[in-house]
Amino acid sequence: MRTELERILRAGRENRVYSAAAWSVGTADGVLDRGMLGTRWWDGPQVTEDSRWDLASVTKPVAGIVIAALAERGRLSFDDPLPRHLPEYAGGDKAAITVRQLLSHTSGLPGATPLWRTHSTRAALLDAIRTGPLRTRPGTQVEYSSQGFILLGLIAEAAGQAPLDRLVAQYVTGPAGLTATGYGPVPGAVATEDCPWRGKVVRGQVHDENAVVLGGICGHAGLFAPLPDLERLGQILAGGAASLLKPATHTEMTTAHTRGLRRGLAWQGLDVPGSPVGTALTADAYGHTGFTGTSLWLEPGRGRYYVLLTNRVHPSRETAGIEAVRHAFHDAAVGV
């Protein structure tokens, strides 16, 4: 028997918003509704439990948990200025930016910047971030910026004295038991875009082009995961994240630190209007979406999690309809 969630997501495939979808709704104690449908690419094999999805910006809160875990261990502070961990930023217009501002998207660094178009090497792209202009004075305005999370990945590596993929394994995927979550490449992953820049359909390489130039292991994008792992992470967070962070740290991360647009530390709050998941979730909800069509949202008061995975950029990022699907899914999911 099909559930309402399955009907909504099957209609999304029939309307060619994506070739595949997977979902899970539940609490810390178990699953209330879950499933998967469609194919890893159009005319490809069926998605399965072990199919891995490009999480895109759902990578950001995972990197944020790494930063928070390092803070708990005294390796850094949320209020450290950028040059404390990245000395090359001393003396410039970004010297006063703090880790907290990077996490809450109030650093002044611009968003939606396709640096990959004009900077084809890791060194050149990172230098472009260092030397590029700020949009606003740090601490004054919310602007969603992947550049900030690229820098947070570098900060984590400097403070943790290890590559970011190892830190993610040490502080997140290992303790959480996410056995199949990690950075790519992931052969056979659910397909993303038929990419003009790469001249092929992307299957298992990170979709984000800035991440490609940076080598695929970044703070802003790059993680791949199957539904059971995102389900498990949702259950852990819905239960208070005790296996990952101290309660006070988890609360600090998930509480809004900004006015207007609600931003926690690496998490997004529920903006009304304007939330990418609609307004049916409770006011205390937090979560994150990914450009490829992924999302993970939590309702602390109800102890609920909501996982939705799609490949809405396949075969083109110009495909319309994911906003309506996300809203309909979460509107229905709160009643499960």
Automatic annotation (TrEMBL):
Keywords: Hydrolase. This is CubicO group peptidase (Beta-lactamase class C family). It comes from the Bacteria. GO terms for molecular function: hydrolase activity. Pfam families: Beta-lactamase. Residues 13-321 form the Beta-lactamase-related domain.
